[in-house]
Amino acid sequence: MANRLQVIYIEDDALVRRASVQSLQLAGFDVAGFESAEAAEKAIVADTAGVIVSDIRLPGASGLDVLAQCRERVPDVPVILVTGHGDISMAVQAMRDGAYDFIEKPFAAERLIETVRRALERRELVLENHALRRELAGQNVVAPRIIGRSPAIEQVRKLIANVAPTDASVLINGDTGAGKELIARSLHELSPRRDKPFIAVNCGALPEPMFESEMFGYEPGAFTGAAKRRVGKLEYASGGTLFLDEIESMPLALQVKLLRVLQDGVLERLGSNQPIRVNCRVVAAAKGDMSELVAAGTFRRDLLYRLNVVTIALPPLAERREDIVPLFEHFMLDAAVRYGRPAPVLTDRQRASLMQRDWPGNVRELRNAADRFVLGVADMPPETGAGDDADNDQTLKERIEQFERAVIAEALNQTGGAVAATADRLHVGKATLYEKMKRYGLSAKGDTER
């Protein structure tokens, strides 16, 4: 808030105004005093960074008029009202109408300073959240939903850009929590079908007896309890995108029917022989190797070929550690906006600790950790290795090397791959840094002597 007016003080009594302005200035605030609401009007603008302190009783427009104007023009700006003894009930009503606080005359300078300080903290939080919303919007324009700087994520973004405008079926392969649905939604939102439905079905969550009726719909009387017509997911997604998560869980009998719909573009509801044309793009997601399921006879080879025109592989976070910090910071911004909290700034140690952790729950676990951190209910850095069986098998030397690699990788990212700047940041010689980079398989980008 440097070089921006912090306090607009409106008081018609020149002695009180001068004393109050001086007290606030001595406390370090940037203050402007005005004798009337009309005189202060030009200083109250939409991006006012500070707070307004106004006497209730003024010549011309009153402090209550100032409050009403602020509620209309700058609703987030805190208004503190100064009142005489006889105006307390009026001030209490003003607080119900949106005033931040009131101060009763005569008041000590400390009371004024403390009230202004608290109001400014609230105003700073509001302005920060506005900035966070703009930053999130900017991120979504550049790379909607897909956050990261690793080569794997760059490849994912390229595939999405190339494939989204087409109707090609896509199979997304990745562990639980890796963000497969986010990729599916990005494919939909960047496609010509973006204005049509995006229907997500978790094949692993549907009981097998309900699978066919959920996917194909049914007519009244098709089975016991079918009292009225129901449109199935395939029909509802027509014109848009159908996302089939955990496709490996789909029963074999339904795989045959789904294949027929994908080949012919026609389905029949349960209890009906009437063909219904459907035209939906199918994006499927799976964890594990689908070819193994085909070999085991639990998934049809011809359906896999139909779904697997393009494969997008989404590696776990443990294999793309350079994405962990950008993702965590993005999730912190999002959580700060949702919860109305300031976004913390990570230290270098916290960044390194985040990168050291394997995050077996992947993006989902990382998002939850960011939420807890913003809410102040979790310490940072997170307990690395706590409860992770893989970490329990590591020797001390292996853990130290893993931590050192994470620190160097993050420092390289922060300096844009400049080896000289990275060496200065880590307080090591360039020769030592080169040796460690070679040992850990890290590479610099661009001019390494910058």
UniProtKB/TrEMBL annotation:
InterPro entries registered for this protein in UniProt? AAA+_ATPase, AAA_lid_NorR, CheY-like_superfamily, Homeodomain-like_sf, HTH_Fis, P-loop_NTPase, Sig_transdc_resp-reg_receiver, Sigma_54_int
Pfam families registered for this protein in UniProt: AAA_lid_14 (PF25601), HTH_8 (PF02954), Response_reg (PF00072), Sigma54_activat (PF00158)
**Start and end of every Response regulatory domain?**
6-120
**DNA damage in keyword set:** no
- GO molecular function term, any single one: sequence-specific DNA binding
State the source organism's domain of life. Bacteria
Picking any one GO biological process from the record gives: regulation of DNA-templated transcription
Sigma-54 factor interaction domain ranges (all copies)? 146-375
| Keyword flag rRNA processing | no
Query: What are the entry keywords?
Result: ATP-binding, DNA-binding, Nucleotide-binding, Phosphoprotein, Transcription, Transcription regulation, Two-component regulatory system
Post-translational modification 4-aspartylphosphate, affected residues: 55
Name of the protein? Sigma-54-dependent Fis family transcriptional regulator
**Source organism per UniProt:** Burkholderia cenocepacia
